[in-house]
Design goal:
single chain, about 190 residues, mainly alpha, about 0% strand
């Protein structure tokens, strides 16, 4: 922990071993693209979720596989666009603020849903393997990078954790009924 008078970081009062803002930004951006890649593989694992939902939910709408596949492609494209827009920003704080919902609510929230379904129905739920092995680990790294950028990001991340618990409780209480948002998604895809 030495200060080097010759380094720009030392001139700003930063310790020379502390990562620069650009290094922080690069690490955050890389972690977000890993989450995006994990989400892409995760959505591909859901290729047969329509049949699984027909077996496990009494109020399934009968949406065909082709409509599910189209929906998965659209969801993946929108997610990638979200991450692209976030990572184009210069400020690591702005990147973290824009990407936090994509990671903490969408990626982890969706993963929690698949894991909860697996326990609830005591069978493989399409998407659970990539959720547990790819999405959650890469999301944890990205969320850690957000907190490294600014510790205040821990507050909304803790709020998201409370939402994960509430969402799991809602899924369990719904049992074999689809969530309202799932009906809405299926209606959009079918139209």
């Amino acid at each position: 922990w030495r200060r080097s008078a010759a380094s720009p970081a030392a001139a700003r009062g930063r310790v020379s071993s502390e990562p620069s803002r650009e290094a922080e930004r690069s690490a955050l951006v890389r972690s977000l693209w890993w989450v995006a890649a994990a989400m892409t593989v995760h959505e591909a694992e859901e290729w047969n979720i329509a049949e699984w939902q027909q077996r496990n939910f009494v109020d399934h709408t009968g949406i065909p596989n082709e409509a599910i596949w189209l929906g998965l492609v659209v969801i993946t494209a929108l997610y990638l666009l979200w991450i692209l827009l976030a990572t184009r920003l210069r400020s690591p704080i702005a990147i973290a603020a824009v990407a936090l919902p994509a990671v903490a609510l969408v990626a982890v929230g969706n993963s929690v849903q698949h894991i909860t379904w697996t326990f609830l129905f005591a069978e493989y739920a399409p998407g659970v393997l990539t959720a547990a092995l790819l999405v959650i680990p890469t999301s944890v790294v990205a969320m850690w990078r957000m907190v490294e950028v600014d510790r205040r990001f821990a507050i909304p991340l803790l709020a998201c954790a409370a939402l994960w618990v509430a969402a799991s409780a809602q899924i369990v209480s719904a049992g074999r009924m689809l969530q309202p948002f799932q009906h809405q998604l299926q209606a959009v895809v079918m139209s």
